[in-house]
Amino acid sequence: MHPILAKLGPLTIRYYGLMYVIAITLGFYLLLREVRRKKLTAGAGKAQRLVTTDDLIDLLLWTIPFAILGARIYYVAFQWGFYSHHLWDMVKIWQGGLAIHGGVIAGATTVYVFCRVRGIPFWALTDALAPSLILGQAIGRIGNLMNGDAYGTPTNLPWGIHFPPNSPAGMAYPGQATHPSMIYEMILNLIIFGYLWNIRKKGYKDGFITAMYFILYSIDRSIVSFTRGDSLWLGPIRAAHVISGILVITFVAFIIKRRLYKRAMRESHPQDKTAAPADRPSSPPESRA
Question: pLDDT at residue 285 above 70?
Fold first, then answer.
């Protein structure tokens, strides 16, 4: 494994950045498909219109920088003992050190603000976005593999990986094979993507797919974290376990309170005046061929 794919004169192409580009491109394509299928609208009253490609491009331009910033701030905060003495290293995100929980929190906040500004139903949009997000996370783990970060603890299992000595994993555990934790998470992320993509047409109320993303990914991350050698800690407890536990409890309660496990009569959104309110029981879904 090596973090650099190619050097073209002064230009260096890193796997880490390339995986981000692939994830964003593919994720945007899937998001655009979902938004068009769901016929999401923006604005209100006579100004109401369908969400456009330009709206989604603006969404990315708002969200991606803040998500990356949030992911980095979260990571640096837990590693302040090191970064307080190496301030310039805080900007070296190409070396790894982006915490997904920080990115998701910052990204979700940005999406909420964007939806409020544009008049787009928040839960309907995040339901369309969730499958793309978990697929992007899976693709990003390939970058972690090539970089040697998001690594695991030492293992004698036959699939343990010896990372190069100058990689984060190689420096943490010199000469030792480690769990390919990034591959574990990539596989689980792909399974979650398959589930979310499969249920997107099942007629669940707005917010259900988003809630299931947070619940399933939190479980996924909690499992994988037992093998991670670079975990962030809150005292004697892994930070990922604390945050994941909070997210699972929050979104299970959200599903129950809003009865999102009951399918809506048809795919609808808050602007549709004929739609059943999200917090009331609705009729069974119409049969679909």
Answer: no
Q: Do 183 and 141 meet the contact criterion of CB atoms below 8 Å apart? A: yes
What residues does each domain of the chain span? Answer: 15-258
Question: Which residue type is seen at 64?
Answer: I
Written as six digits, the tokens of 77 are: 């905060």
Tell me the H-state helices in the chain: 15-38, 53-78, 80-83, 100-118, 122-147, 168-172, 181-199, 208-225, 239-258
Task: Pick 93 or 178 by higher pLDDT.
Answer: 178
DSSP assignment of 61-117, as one string? Answer: HHHHHHHHHHHHHHHHHHTHHHHTS-GGGGG-GGG----HHHHHHHHHHHHHHHHHH
Q: At a CB cut-off of 8 Å and minimum separation 6, what does 140 contact?
A: 19, 20, 23
User: Rounded to two decimals, what is the model's pTM?
Assistant: 0.86
Q: Quote the DSSP letter at residue 163.
A: -
Q: Does the pLDDT value for residue 276 go beyond 70?
A: no
131: burial class by Cβ within 10 Å (0-12, 13-18, 19+)? buried
Residue 4 phi, psi dihedral angles, 5° rounding:
-105, 125
In this structure, of 15-24, 26-35, 126-135, the range with the lowest mean pLDDT score is 15-24
